[in-house]
Design a protein that fits this description.
This protein has 332 residues and is an alpha+beta fold. The protein is built from eight helices and 18 strands.
């Protein structure tokens, strides 16, 4: 979200510095699977789907521009997603019809051919390259210790590498956003929710599309890698992996794709999602500090929502009309 926001501002001619507490693009965005849709969109509030559907609509052009400008392919592809029961098929079909999403009945499952994916690590590499290409300044290992404010404005940021000041400041710190904001957080209720993933490698993709069943998903990459995820764990800022999660993911994935039986797990990792009530992010200007903004709390769908979230934030900053009602996301 930080890199996408920076790129959007740089395209408008702003001077931008990105302060990163660790290494850029190595947290939840890197750790996620890159399914460009809410898993079962009919189960989510309209405020989530409004932003996600707009992001899905914009993502193809967003990825193409990044690839063309940087030469790094985020591997955006409309591979489709097969949703397997149990779920309410009638509700799902009605929702898809109402929102213009194509759907095919496959036995007791539903296939959504328009659902796309991106390869998160490559997307982040492309975004970093684009930000630097546009003249953005990235400062790594630069944790913000305090947002210092006076008379209704942020005066500067006290960081591990000294003080930084700017005309405006935007918090895009994911799971760490509420901690970073401290006394200025107000109702930006964002906390870490751990997700664990497994990675397998085939000679050729073992599936033609994403498969989803009750929160478990299998994501085939073009080069034969297969991602299996993911858990939802309230474990604070602990990013360690567990044998319990590994066993559960392996058991459920093998039941869906028996060829996984006996295959080695190439990698097992965890990331911390920026959890928020109802999966609804906070985007906009601080109610009390006129030069502080936020673009965070996207929970499971930050990558999907990123082009739309940047669009909403830039419209707030510029005072330009929004593509839809953005009141659910505004900072209170």
């Amino acid at each position: 979200m930080g890199l996408a926001t920076a790129a959007g501002l740089l395209r408008q001619g702003a001077a931008v510095a990105v302060l990163e507490r660790g290494a850029i693009g190595r947290e939840s965005s890197w750790a996620g699977g890159g399914i460009l849709s809410p898993l079962c969109p009919w189960d989510y509030p309209e405020a989530v789907n409004r932003l996600a559907l707009r992001g899905m609509q914009l993502f193809g052009g967003f990825a193409e521009e990044l690839c063309h400008a940087t030469g790094i392919d985020p591997e955006y592809q409309r591979c489709g997603m097969l949703v397997l029961p149990p779920f309410d098929q009638d509700q799902a079909r009605q929702w898809c019809a109402a929102h213009g999403l194509e759907v095919e009945v496959r036995g007791e499952g539903l296939f959504l051919p328009d659902i796309a994916q991106a390869r998160n690590p490559r997307l982040l590499q492309a975004l970093r390259a684009r930000v630097e290409q546009l003249g953005g300044h990235i400062v790594e290992q630069c944790a913000v210790d305090k947002i210092v404010a006076e008379a209704g404005r942020v005066t500067h940021l006290a960081t591990a590498q000294g003080d930084f000041s700017a005309a405006a400041h935007i918090v895009t710190a994911g799971a760490w956003s509420k901690v970073l904001l401290g006394e200025h957080a107000l109702q930006a209720d964002i906390k870490p929710i751990r997700g664990q993933m497994l990675l397998f490698k085939f000679d050729t993709p073992p599936l033609p599309h994403i498969v989803l069943q009750q929160g478990l998903y299998l994501i085939p990459r073009r080069d034969g890698h297969l991602l299996v995820g993911s858990t939802l764990e309230d474990a604070g800022f602990d990013k360690s992996t567990t044998e319990e999660a590994r066993a559960l993911l392996l058991q459920r994935a093998t039941a869906l794709l028996p060829v996984l039986h006996g295959m080695p797990v190439i990698r097992h990792w965890a990331g911390l999602r920026p959890g928020s009530p109802g999966n609804i992010p906070t985007i906009g200007r601080h109610p009390q500090l006129s030069n502080l903004y936020i673009n965070s709390g996207h929970f499971r769908y930050g990558v999907t929502m990123s082009p739309a979230s940047v669009e909403v934030l830039l419209n707030v900053i510029n005072g330009t009309p929004q593509p839809f009602d953005v009141s659910p996301y505004l900072w209170h």
